[in-house]
Fold each of these.
Amino acid sequence: MLLNTENLVVQQATAGDFDDLCRLLNASDLPTTDLQPEMLNHFVLVRDTAGLAGAAGLEPYGDAALVRSLCTRQGLRGQGLGRQLLTALVEQASRLKIRKLYLLTQTAGDFFAKHGFAPTDRATAPAGIRASQQFSGLCPASALFMAADLRSLLAGEAK
């Protein structure tokens, strides 16, 4: 299925989007056990005429944030939707005065590297990130830990 960008709506998530978001994350094999409706104020969603097409969120910890749950609906991958979601998160992080973004991934290391993130040592993670459920147990120890400076992302250094 091709993404019809004419019908694409990027929006801030609300607590009312919780069930749809959980269904999308479950279909993408991403964790939802730590997700709470009040966390959705840091999520962006993309909808098309068929419903929820993609999502991505931030977990802010001071001037750092964990990028989490970036995914698109099966059949829409590879069409630039992930890049749009990441761009929206970077803009949101800038408004929140975030300086550095971190993430854990098992499958999307190449995608994030292409967009300005680099593998980094888990030992360098800020305390808030280390204490997150994603970091401390939901994502396996084998997950790739990556980081990016927000200034670099905003300057367009991502390829």
Note: The first helix runs from residue 18 to 27.
Amino acid sequence: MISSKRKQELIKEFGKNEKDSGSIEVQIAILTEDIEKLKPHFQTNPKDLHSKRGFIAKIEKRKKYLEYLKNNNYDSYSSLIKKLNIRK
């Protein structure tokens, strides 16, 4: 889990205003931050299958959000991928 302070920073950076936590860009940024924080855990604990299930669910959710953004606002999609350093 990411801290609430870091989450607020992501909302300010990717949202339209400080209270815009629901926009697709913010949700993708928060999921990406969560995924990046969990990666080292699975490198050191490869047999933690219970947590890996939730990790894969977060990846799939982000993938769906990215597909939605790509279909509806390609410019925002391409800039978000560059900012978050996501491979696509």
Note: Residues 4-84 form a domain with the Helix Hairpins fold (CATH 1.10.287.10).
Amino acid sequence: MSKQVRARVVISGKVQGVYFRAETQRAAKQRNVLGWVRNRSNGSVEALFEGDEPSVKTMLEWCWKGSPFSRVQHVDVQWETYMGDFDRFEIAL
């Protein structure tokens, strides 16, 4: 079994108003990654991913691509202690 990990991510660029959160949720569900994604007041998007290490790393790679209409400029990743807090991936307000 793969190691379980947790990553907090802030994505900047043109990432609001371009279906970034919905596409992040879809991508996370496809990879069995749990957590949440939300818009931030400064125009960036923040996400928290939990799951097996390969799947979370694939999500981090996906964040650099983003939704079809997004233009990602930077992805900041902070690794945190795995908590197992989630039973799904949701769009948070």
Note: The chain has a mean pLDDT of 97.
